[in-house]
Automatic annotation (TrEMBL):
Protein name: Eukaryotic translation initiation factor isoform 4E
Quaternary structure (record): EIF4F is a multi-subunit complex, the composition of which varies with external and internal environmental conditions. It is composed of at least EIF4A, EIF4E and EIF4G. EIF4E is also known to interact with other partners. In higher plants two isoforms of EIF4F have been identified, named isoform EIF4F and isoform EIF(iso)4F. Isoform EIF4F has subunits p220 and p26, whereas isoform EIF(iso)4F has subunits p82 and p28.
Taxonomic classification: Eukaryota, Viridiplantae, Streptophyta, Embryophyta, Tracheophyta
Keyword rRNA-binding tagged: no
Protein species of origin: Lactuca sativa (Garden lettuce)
InterPro entries: TIF_eIF4e-like (IPR023398), TIF_eIF_4E (IPR001040), TIF_eIF_4E_CS (IPR019770)
């Protein structure tokens, strides 16, 4: 009897959802049919905030695969409470590491590896990270990892190196400050 009871208890514990260290939000920005004159961000939508492994897999399987996106659309995974915009206070002094890919399956794999690394807290400087954006484009897809304090070179270099390991990239990747993107100064500030 006793062992039955403890077995049942163990089963109940097993069925508890696996909580993540923090909450995350998926966003979508579909500019595949842009309205003339519409401001940037007009189509940016917060989709769902989650905090368990089970919710993550359900959302990923059902919706958040870049192969499901038309050209000129973006998926974002950002920390809950942080908007994927330069204007958000967490992003305002930040920047992004960018990886490009001319092959759709590569974007798909790199996106999933990055999502798992973020929700699994694999970066030493996890506090420095705002989120990641997958951009499906006609010519070349893109993945960008947004971080908080662009001026903190040591933190950005450590994040860049770790990210390359995670997504298995050996080519150089470039870090841009959002402030430079605003003025369309496209020069990269760091590379790794
Ligand atoms: P982008 O998407 O960062 O450049 O910005 P990209 O990815 O090289 O261009 P794309 O055509 O492949 O998408 C493109 C433009 O969108 C910028 O020059 C801004 O006009 C606008 N924009 C992009 N972001 C991320 C923001 C933002 O966070 N805030 C505002 N206000 N505009 C933005």
């Amino acid at each position: 009897m006793a062992s039955d009871a403890s077995g049942a208890a163990a089963e109940v514990v097993d069925k508890q959802p696996h909580k993540l260290e923090k909450k995350w939000t998926f966003w979508i920005d579909n500019q595949s049919k842009p309205k003339q004159g519409a401001a940037w961000g007009n189509n940016l939508r917060k989709v769902y905030t989650f905090e368990t492994v089970e919710e993550f897999w359900c959302l990923y399987d059902q919706v958040f695969k870049p192969s499901k996106l038309p050209a000129n659309a973006d998926f974002h995974l950002f920390k809950a409470g942080v908007q994927p915009k330069w204007e958000d206070p967490e992003c305002a002094s930040g920047g992004k590491w960018t990886v490009t890919s001319s092959r759709k399956p590569t974007l798909e794999t790199m996106w999933l590896e990055t999502l798992m690394a973020l929700i699994g807290e694999q970066f030493d400087e996890a506090d420095e990270i705002c989120g990641v954006v997958a951009s499906v484009r006609q010519r070349q897809d893109k993945l960008s990892l947004w971080t908080k304090n662009a001026a903190n070179e040591a933190a950005q270099m450590s994040i860049g190196r770790k990210w390359k390991e995670i997504i298995d990239v050996t080519d150089k990747i470039i870090y841009n400050f959002h402030d430079d993107s605003k003025t369309r100064t496209s020069k990269g500030r760091y590379n790794v």
